[in-house]
Amino acid sequence: MKNSLSLLPKVGVISVTDVPREQGLVGEREQYINKAHQDLIDYLRKNNIDVVDVSSKIERPDNNLVAIYKHSDARNCIKVMVNEDVEALIIGCWHWCEPMLIVDLAREFNKPILLYSDGNPMWAGVTLISAAGASLWQNAPNFYSIVHKRVYGDKSEIIKWTKGVTAVEKLKRGTFILWGGSYALAMEYLQDDYPKLKSFLVGDIINEDQYILIKYSEQIAEKRLIDFANWLKTNKTVINYDDKMLTKEIFKKQIALYLAAKDRINEYENVLGVSVKCFTELSDTYGVDPCFLPAFLPFYEDSEGKKDVVPCVCEGDIKALICSSLLQIISSGHPSLFGDILFIDKDYLVMGNCGASSIYYSCFSKNVKEVLKGITISQNFEGRGGAVSYNTARDNLMTMVRLLRIKDEYIILLGLMQTIEIKENMRNKTCFYRNWPLTALKFNVSIELLVDSLGANHLIGIPGDFTNELTYSGNIAGIKVFRIDNDDEIKKWINYSNSKAKHF
């Protein structure tokens, strides 16, 4: 894949200072600003942030000073950030400067802005943060000036904000491919307003017929098919053939569809995720389930070596695909988990995708030998083909998220859940999805409230706590965020959703 999008957040750092005038402590002030500026940059880089030290790239009479105070310097800084594809700007507010300088930066940059002070009491940085913040609100040159972020002292919050807002900026430059389009099985929520999404959240959405995968699959060299099958067998994947649902011929076609998808992705630029509509064109008419796409595309390598992790969902669920890509970017490249909510018990739910989810979740590992020996490929009970089955490992904190649309408004629901062991009695409760990959997630809310709040049958998750980052993503995209891991928060969401009926 031709990909100019790095998963690393890319920010510019600019420090500002007062205009030159006859006063004491000027030298001490600038020495302090120089050190604070460099300390901030070092901290960001240690936390895997790609930093552009913007003011160091412009010409000025005194290159020993890092802070700017001239509006002409601000304009030159903007040129640097545009040229370097900077996704967000952090402004060091260490001491006083004339706030209009910061307003000018926000106006011209027109991307996410954060004002930061380290809280040093000697230099009153909070004076500038509050004055500049109020100026941004009142002048309001653009959306980002209104939703600017202020951080006072806690550098760790900068990292969360940076990951959240830059992930949205990457979405705006990315491409999503929907093979077979959407509206599978007449699920209304799968449909969406693509021009609307492209106006504020994603770069492009491409609809292609599934036939392109079939056509490409017919051109896959036999050796590639054999190598993939041998890769599974060598790494101890269990494959249970039968004479109807998972024949060797169907197995070979499943491999071919996966390799075809990988080849097609490589013909595009900046692909951030794909969807494949299985029912009913592929599952019934063609007679082969494309389950190997959601299993192997969102993983780090295959029989042909290391590769990009590409989020993959099913049924043209563009909102789930956006969530999957957002989580992957925020988590620095981890595959996201996608699947249906299959049943809910007293304090846990079980989810699994029809035929496959990312094989990463068989043991939460990048090690292909550990992963492949933990999966079993057996007949799917939908269409024809092999389902990639595993039990997700226990004791992993997961951030679960769902983008939905109610009337004309997009909403993000998110919360924390904990994976628990898939016991035999859980899988025995299943029927047609017995051979699917299953994940059990413990929750701490009322079942009735949870069911009442769910934004779709599809949930998306990632290991770790990224709720703060996702909240920042929602805020910078202009999307309201509600938590579904707390009863009171769920009630707020239910009340808000009910308020949408008032205009009828």
Number of domains: 2
CATH architecture designation of the largest domain: 3-Layer(aba) Sandwich
Find the CATH topology of the largest domain: L-fucose Isomerase, Chain A, domain 2
Q: Please, what is the CATH homologous superfamily of the largest domain?
A: L-fucose Isomerase, Chain A, domain 2
Instruction: Give the C-level CATH assignment of the largest domain.
Output: Alpha Beta
Write the layout of secondary structure elements.
Blueprint (H helix, E strand, L loop, with lengths): L9 E6 L10 H21 L3 E4 L17 H13 L4 E5 L7 H10 L3 E5 L7 H15 L3 H4 L2 E4 L2 H17 L3 E5 L14 H7 L3 E5 L2 H7 L4 H13 L3 E2 L8 H18 L5 E6 L4 H6 L5 H5 L4 E2 L2 E2 L5 E3 L3 H13 L6 E8 L3 E5 L15 H5 L3 E4 L6 E4 L7 E10 L2 E12 L3 H5 L10 E4 L4 H7 L4 E6 L3 H11 L2 E4 L3 H13 L5
Parallel strand pairs: 1-2, 1-3, 3-4, 4-5, 6-7, 6-9, 8-15, 9-12, 18-21
Antiparallel strand pairs: 10-11, 13-14, 13-20, 14-19, 15-16, 17-18, 17-20, 18-19
Helix pairs in contact: 2-3, 3-4, 6-13, 6-17, 8-10, 9-10, 16-18
